[in-house]
Amino acid sequence: MLEQAQRVLKDIFGYDSFRGRQGAIIERVASGGDALVLMPTGGGKSLCFQVPALLRDGLAVVVSPLIALMDDQVATLEELGVAAAALNSTLSAEQQRDLAARIKRGEVKMLYLAPERLVQPRMLSFLQGLNIALFAIDEAHCVSQWGHDFRPEYLQLGQLAEMFPDVPRIALTATADKRTREEIVTRLHLQNAERFLSSFDRPNIFYRIVPKEQPRKQLLAFLAERRSDAGIVYCLSRKKVEEVAAFLSEQGFPALPYHAGLPNDLRAFNQKRFLNEEGLIMVATVAFGMGIDKPNVRFVAHLDLPKSLEAYYQETGRGGRDGLPADAWMAYGLQDVVMLKQMLQNSEGDERHKRLEQHKLDAMLSLCEETRCRRQTLLAYFDEDMPEPCGHCDNCVDGVQTWDATEPARQALSAIFRTGQRYGVGHLVDVLLGKDNEKVRSFGHQHLSVYGVGKALSESEWRSLFRQLVARGLADVDHEGYGGLRLNDSCRPLLKGEVTLELRRDLKPQVTAKTTSKSPASQLVRGEEREQWEALRALRRKLAEEHGVPPYVIFPDSTLLEMLRSQPTTLAEMARVSGVGARKLERYGDAFLEVLGGETEAPKAVADVRHELITLARAGMTPLQIAGQLQCSEKNVYTMLAEAIGKQQLSLEQALDLPEELMGEVQDAFLDGEGELPSVAEVAELFAGRVPEGVLYCVRAALQSEFEM
Ligand code: ADP
Ligand code: ZN
């Protein structure tokens, strides 16, 4: 059995060996047994049911909660030459009848369905009349009522056990905790399932947390090493998402915003672009993520602190699904601690709930202030023991210096106390440093015994100390929202001299920005390889556009990278590259060999030109200048600008540099009549020779999109 499985793996998927426990899982399910699979994101869950599906007779039924995920998997399978289909609400009645007929004729191997579809009585009796190879229940944690992805329809999936007693069932999830696991077993009637638990470590992710000083500058330094990589930047608020996205675009890093406040179609459009194009940065709130299967997200950056380690692990886990190096980078500072603690105190909900949230936030904070291996800490939180430091996080690589902060900490606590437990860190530091300013004088704080006692430390050292005091719960943040600090019981032993305090020494920000933004992920492709790498990616993009699929469905980055490194020159050599199965070899082998042989000039994909155009327009270039830069006609530029304006990717002001008065005149011309907007041709007569026709297209697009809002 395993031998057969191995053959399918190589022939169809083009991979040489199974990862982790894939082999055992496949053997179990292919031979008719049930399985419960817990694997982290990117662990390779799909193969665990796709390979048995191909080994067994009949139709494999896959339950998946999200249409986007289904479509992605179906496209991937079709590229591999496997007959797969998704049955969902986007199909017309006729398409559905057609699909049912194909299934009856045995022409479909894998059928993807939403749970609510599957449990319809008509659907179930349809399936009962067929030969079913297996049921795979993806994202099985959706059955848990306590989890955040609860889907009531999942509860009904338990009946499959009784209705199809001889059909093996495999449930899969990336959610780690025990309670969810037991719930899946009970509710899906999987008592006989063999359990396959994998480590939740993501070895290819490099974790780094830096003290937040000038976050935008720090982010730019980080990004500078990662040009043309795709990544996600998480921010707490919608406003900040939009500001950061605009800032990055201005700085020449193509970035899109994503948050729950954007119109639905714009959000969907941005998400689609992120999946289909390369090198885009998504700046997002936590609303972005569910169902994002893009494998080559090379970094996940946090500009604000997540509320829990669960959230941090899940968000950072969206990087590096393809197994190649990826970065989890976060800038974290005093303000984060103060803000989150305040939000928590003022949140709705009962005391028990608040305590739980508090506990989660504390765990997150202690990861930030951790002096030992980050990965060990993270895994320990999820009850997994990692005996040795990982060697693949900032603390392991850079080492952490600590210092005895007992005395300064006492001074800091004393400053809080003596100023009346109501001032924020800024003022407290001023007092400790003995600053002579108006606020100090107006409160008479220059007369306090703590005034000026802290001159041995710099301002940033004091701020770092206060941050760590609050993070460790040695000082509290006020409830009123002014960021004032106060003492609590836990600081008593320190004040009384019963304990000492060891704190982390922050690196100087200049040092962090320059030297520590490099990581294995940032050096994935070496300088001399860059040109050929881009050529391979360009070919992939072109093929993806032709086939209407995301680029990674053609080949994942890992496969392109292996081509780059092994430089195959014949089809036989190409077949040995991991990820090149029989079907793809036949379809694409020659084209990629040509690029590797340097025979073809890489085509510039349409999507890329659009992208560049938007960036250039936002940077203030005129249409004529853009035409020069992109080497296309000015008319063409106007057409693309109008399109971007229509999609609200650009404002009229960004796209054109018309004098205000003339712009008003053009707009009036369009708005003069009643009802429908007049066509460009109708208006063109009025402005013949005064403005290029392209301008009229842009103005019309802007007005039209306003009307549609
Ligand atoms: P998950 O669903 O667990 O997040 P996927 O099934 O999407 O993970 O797999 C992640 C990536 O790893 C995919 O690109 C997949 O093709 C690849 N992959 C899975 N198993 C193997 C394997 N045995 N060898 C090489 N690549 C693999
Ligand atoms: Zn480590």
TrEMBL record:
Matching PROSITE patterns: HELICASE_ATP_BIND_1, HELICASE_CTER, HRDC
Stored Pfam families: DEAD, Helicase_C, HRDC, RecQ_Zn_bind, RQC
InterPro entries named among the record's database cross-references: DEAD/DEAH_box_helicase_dom (IPR011545), DNA_helicase_ATP-dep_RecQ (IPR004589), DNA_helicase_ATP-dep_RecQ_bac (IPR006293), Helicase_ATP-bd (IPR014001), Helicase_C-like (IPR001650), HRDC-like_sf (IPR010997), HRDC_dom (IPR002121), HRDC_dom_sf (IPR044876)
Domain of life: Bacteria
GO molecular function, one term: DNA helicase activity
Annotated ranges, domain HRDC: 526-606
Assigned keywords, A-Z: ATP-binding, DNA damage, DNA recombination, DNA repair, DNA-binding, Helicase, Hydrolase, Isomerase, Metal-binding, Nucleotide-binding, Zinc
Family: Belongs to the helicase family. RecQ subfamily.
Protein name: DNA helicase RecQ
